[in-house]
Amino acid sequence: MVEAKLRDAEHAALLVVDVQPDFMPGGALPTQGGDEVVPPIARLLERAPSRYVVATQDWHPPGHISFASSHPGCSPFEVIELHGVDQVLWPDHCVQETRGAALHDGVPWRHADLILRKATDPLVDSYSAFRENFAPDGRRPSTGLTGYLRELGVEQLYVCGLARDYCALWSAEDGAQAGFGVHFLWDLTRPVDASNDASVQRTLQAAGVEIVTGVP
Question: Catalytic residue positions?
Answer without folding.
Answer: 18, 118, 167
